[in-house]
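The protein record quoted in full:

***
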Amino acid sequence: MKKLLMLLPAVLLTGCLSITKPPTFPELPQEIADPCPELKQAEKSPELSKLLDSVVQNYGTYYECRVKIEAMVEWHKRQKEIYDKAVK
């Protein structure tokens, strides 16, 4: 009877340990993983000042987006590697 009472907690604890598993690492959201959109095309015959404004805005927007996306993708890859090593 004593052996049965000692065996019961061990069986219950083993069952609890086998049910739980580590959570999965979240995937990168698709809107972040997608590349930045193409630059806007200029009008056929714009004024020079409008063309320059458009060029400055396009390059600023593009490079800001590019840096943000590249940094986020690199961070996610590193965190995923760290997580995979810790889980295994």
About this structure: The CA atoms of residues 8 and 14 lie 10 Å apart. The chain has three helices and no strands. Residues 48-87 form the longest helix (40 residues).
